[in-house]
Amino acid sequence: MNPSTSLKVRLPALVLVLEVMLLVLYSLFVTYDDNANAKMQNNATKPMENTLYRDYPFFADVQVLIFIGFGCLLAFLRFYGFSGMVFNFLTATFAIQWAILVQGYFQFYHDGKIHLGVINLINAEFACAVVLISFGAVLGKTSPVQLLVMAFLEVPIFSVTEWAVLKYLRINDAGGSILIHLFACYFGLGVTFVLYRPNLRNGHAKEVTGYNSDILSVLGTLFLWVFWPSFNSALTLKGDDQHRAVLHTFIGLTASTMTAFALSAVFSKNGKLTMADIQNVTLAGGVTVGASVDMMITPAGAYALGVLGCTACYLGYRYLTPFMAKRLRIQDSCGIHNLHGLTGLISCTAGICAILLATEETYGPSLYETFAHRSPPEGDPKLLELQQMIPGLKPGLGRSAQEQALYQVAAIFSTIAVAAVGGVLTGFILKLPFLASPPDDNCFDDEIFFEVPSDFYSEVKKAPVSESDSKV
């Protein structure tokens, strides 16, 4: 047992501190919302109107996406499958617990309490997804202690950024292209930039895949693929907007999947498919439609975004990731910059175009629901007219399409900047010597943190995997 990486004291001590902290904070600040509070007697009056029945299906779908989809996807490395799946499980569990408090403070805090319901859990899952995406950049090069610390720091930075952007810039970002994908990507890149390992600039002997690990990873891809429409639509306006979000996500995913197979074959030296392309590039369409997922971009527009996002993602894996590792000191283990960064930027650009083109002729009065900040302000006669057609329509800011587009641009740059700086600062903290960081020789190796079965050693003793089996 290597004393510098032993978890015997470090992990239990950290978990104990975190659990005591969470227990105290939950005791002081968390209570039920009206739909879970027995005093409100919802169960005795109209039980089927409880928000559980509206929100729980989305919660369950995102749970599958986070714990099974991400978990299996991160098991692609031949000698790092235990760590990929189990560290995802551990990190996600804590991130959701922590995000319930942090997200709840900004969104559900009143009367001195955070009022807990299923919708809080969904919000916490989105914060958790941010952490898991960032995790992909440092996969194989960090200990579970480092990952818990990273989650502890990233969730508040993300939550404050989200709160500030939504409160002061007032943007449209239904699928989280700005506040989830771009933030998570550039936070993760900031962390891995600081944790740069010069000895790994040309890769690692165990940074390879295997037949079984690739099959398990594709299973994760399939779970992500199937449940991504719920991820993109969970927090959109109920009704038409949510319906469009499901349709656009599915169409975008189908387009990126077809394109991924074609690109994998045409760019292969021998005309064969590469599993890494199937595992990652097929998902690009789900990200690319995110910023405009609830808008009237047309099914053809969603299809085009799927193709465009897939192409950018594929070329990023093929050319940009190796360049960043060798020239920019950014060792992006899972290529999150391709699947979440490049596609996120394309998605944001498409969202800005959709905002600029949005008119009453296309949307009707619902234009001011989908783009709430374009709704007339309080006292405007037009607001009264719209409220007669859409009861409950709230006053907006009276923004023009051009003004809203400029705020979207400001949100993109500010989010990337805060995420990158936050990631860099977090990276310096993760370099502290007592956080059990694995040495270069033990990166991408389950044995350093797990009791492994006997057949693990027989796998290690086999002939080295060919270069073609390595992840792109």
TrEMBL record:
Record carries keyword Ribosomal protein: no
Gene Ontology MF terms: ammonium channel activity
Localization: Cell membrane
UniProt keyword terms in alphabetical order: Ammonia transport, Cell membrane, Glycoprotein, Membrane, Transmembrane, Transmembrane helix, Transport
Protein task: Functions as an ammonia transporter. May play a role in the elimination of ammonia in the gill.
GO biological process: ammonium homeostasis
Alphabetical list of Pfam families matching this protein: Ammonium_transp
Protein name as catalogued: Ammonium transporter AmtB-like domain-containing protein
Domain of life: Eukaryota
Keyword Transmembrane attached: yes
Family, per entry: Belongs to the ammonium transporter (TC 2.A.49) family. Rh subfamily.
Domain Ammonium transporter AmtB-like: 23-433
GO cellular component: plasma membrane
Organism: Muraenolepis orangiensis
First-listed, main subcellular location of the protein, grouped into a coarse class: membrane
Bilayer-crossing regions: 12-32, 58-80, 86-106, 118-139, 145-166, 178-196, 216-235, 247-267, 300-320, 341-359, 405-430
Protein's membrane topology: Multi-pass membrane protein
